[in-house]
Model the fold of this input.
Amino acid sequence: MNVMRFDTRQQMGLGQHMKLAPRMIQSMEILQLPLAALQERIEQELEKNVALELVEPGEGDVREDGGGIDVADTEREFVAGEGAEDFNRLAELESRYRDVWDGDDYGASKPSASAGDRDRKMDAMANTAGRGLSLAAQLEEQWRFIDAPENQARTGRRLIEYVDDDGLLDTDLDTIFEQGRELDIEEWSLELLGRTLDRLQRILDPPGLMARSKQESLLLQIDAIVEHEGDEDGGWTDAAVLIGEHFEDLIENRLPKIAKDAEMPLERVQTAKAIMRRLTLWPGRELVNADSSVVIPDVMVEYESETDTYVAALADGVVPPLRINPQVEGMKKDKSLAEGDRGFIDQAVRDATWLIDAVNQRTNTLLRVVRVVLDRQREFFDHGPQFLKPLPMTEVADQLGVHVATVSRAVSEKWIQTPRGMYPLRRFFSGGRESEEGGEKSWEAIKAILQEIVEAEDKLKPLSDQKLADALKEKGVEIARRTVVKYREQLGIPPARRRKIHG
Done:
């Protein structure tokens, strides 16, 4: 009997966890939404939930605690230390329930994928474009339909966070690996990142997405064309040779040189170049509508001269304050209601309360993270990008007492408006290295210094990559020539011979 009672308690405890999961999943998702997406989400909830309403100006009876729920209480499952195991469980539940969490039936079970579902999945993937979603959101929707081990599924979502407007990966894998070390992804490694990236590149549509360079993107597009159409006349094989081995000459239209170096008739080179018109340098733009590419800052930073401080405020004035409709909430006490109607009202009030709570938690968490950034990156705000310091997310998480994944979600797809311009919030989080003077410089700061050196060089005698490395060393930053090449390419700076101006 004792054993039986123990089992029962276990089952009851599991049931309680499952009931809590949707609320926490919702909190995590709301936390990750940028401002524009949050506005859209609120509008959708207002349309479908009779218990949720706007607070009109002057009414003033908003329950600032999010409908009676303590924000600190909701943060409990996101704290570091003992809460880490619970967070891992919730992250797993997020993946499991993300298709059904929309409030219609939180307890619904979802059949496992089978081979017979693949066509429907591919159809769904093909229909994810053109709905006003951000590029990252559309790619994540495609990725959701792929059967993958949990660690690879989470790694894929992590990689998608780093996609730029062109659909390319704008951060090297080493940096992504360092920033994600504390995310509790099983078998987290550069090998897992590389393997997952390869799968993303092969699966996501249109082809060429998630490439690490425009060159790689073009080659991925060719691979996709050959796979679907074949290459009977060898034109695409020639095109791959031109892009893979003679890319810089191709950009400069030095076709005779390519023909000579590749030992290929000039006519074949011209034919290969002609069919490249089917390729694009910006595969991501095919998925994003012009109106959805507008960036709206989530955070505004201003300098207060009287106190010599930078002050942050969330740009959420356009997000209307929400409350539970008093009339609907009062109906819960109406004993004349049928049982089914009462259940409907209870669920509507519960869903509305969860949403208000999640929005409040988003505000609280994001503002706390930004305040740490303002403190730790003061030199950036005073002097510019060259003074960015290394700031791992783990350090911020430790300082705030939350899980590192909470910080990651808080900064994901968020932008910050500063006196020095608008930047992605994630830019302030990176690794770095110690300078010769003993200080620390982030990778972004090093890139900014490199950009400055190139802009100041003599265009009649542009600096080679080795001389750029020497110039960086003179400024206290010692990195290898190959690292200079990597950063130069990430900044879109051509090699010295292409920067030269002939007088």
Residues 241 and 262 are 8 Å apart (CA to CA). The two ends are 94 Å apart (CA to CA). Residues 432-499 form a domain with the Arc Repressor Mutant, subunit A fold (CATH 1.10.10.60). The first strand starts at residue 52 and ends at 54.
